[in-house]
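Full entry
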Amino acid sequence: MAPVPRSTPPRITRRAALAAAAVGLAPLGLAAVTGSRTAPAPSVGDAALAGPLGDVWIGAPPAKVMLIAYAAVTCTHCAAFHARTWPALKARWVDTGQLRFALRGFALSPLDTAGFMLARAGDDRHYYAITDLLFEKQALWAFVPEPLDALRDLMRQAGFSRERFEATLNDQALYEAVTLVQTRAASVLGVHATPTFYVNDTRHDGAATAEALGEAIRAASG
């Protein structure tokens, strides 16, 4: 079996690391698995795994198949999926009513946590607009000497003033809700790298192609 592609977290300067720590974006630990080791494996669609904020779905609720992606906004493989693979999957499966899609955050660094906090701030109608922006402009903010400053500047395009940006990253309840998705994915599902995809409850690790995911969707469609 080929090794699972892993994204390398971006280099974060001391200033950015201190700034992230100041707003509570400490490195994430993994929650311990609780309950019986012999209990049935949970479904990835379980509401508990989506965290208290829930999933933001694209696609019709009656769709038989769901595609859930665990991703990080600093992950280059995740950005490539959203630029090259997702449009084809959406046109073929989502727009025809056969698939629902949800993106769940899985942080590789404090910058990822910050990105998903910003995406989940306020109205969920803007969730994908913000994550798309973060993926599309990834090179301009995630891999620069002062990434937190670059992220603040980028978020002006999404209507964030400096005050709202800082208030969002100081929101402890939002921080806990976003990080809970990552810790539960790691402890319950064993997710350890990005991107990780689930077609219903079938797992696909690494940068899957539109063809490979399409075959899995077709098989799940029965």
